[in-house]
Each structure stands twice: as structure tokens, then as C-alpha cells.
Amino acid sequence: MKLNPKGQATIPVEVRRMLGADSECRELELRATEGGFQLLPHKPPLPLKRYIGYCAEELADVDDPVAFLRELRGRPADTAEE
Asked: How far apart are CA 41 and CA 29, in angstroms?
């Protein structure tokens, strides 16, 4: 593999396919090991994950989350979806 003047390398298509980096995964992680380096696919966490537990204190007293969400949406809490 060669580096261009900007320090960038082109990873051969066969290697990208082996890593699963040819379609949905566009990021790779270069990890240093005792024997050299490992190139691993990196899938960043979903943006939604940072909000898990965000309102935990405010929602701690909610006994029925489905009814709570129905009320937030302006629907009667005690009727089932049809």
C-alpha cells in the first residue's frame, strides 16, 4: 500500500469487502497491537444511544409506558390500537 502526499492510503477493494467496509460501514479503526496493526470495521453508535436514560429521573414514576406515550400523543390511554 502506498501513501499519497496527504498521508492517505487507498485500501484495495478486496480488503474493504473482507472488512465489510464497501457499503454501509464507511469508517475503519486502525488499532496498534504488539505484533503490528489491525484494521477493523468501525460502526459508530447510533445517535439515539446518547439519549438512553436521558429522562430517567423524570420518568421514574411512569408505571405504564404505553399509556404514557398514548397520552403524550393525545390519545386515550386506556384504548388499544385498532
From this structure: 6
Q: Please, which residues bridge with residue 38 across strands?
A: 31
**pLDDT by residue (tens digit) across 15-44?**
888 887 766 667 888 999 999 999 888 877
Q: Are 40 and 29 in contact (CB under 8 A)?
A: yes
Q: Which domain holds residue 13?
A: 1-42
Neighbour-count burial for 55-73, b at 16+ CB within 10 Å, e otherwise: eeeeeeeeeeeeeeebeee
52 inside domain: yes
> Model's pTM, two decimal places?
0.44
Name the β-bridge partners of 25.
Answer: none
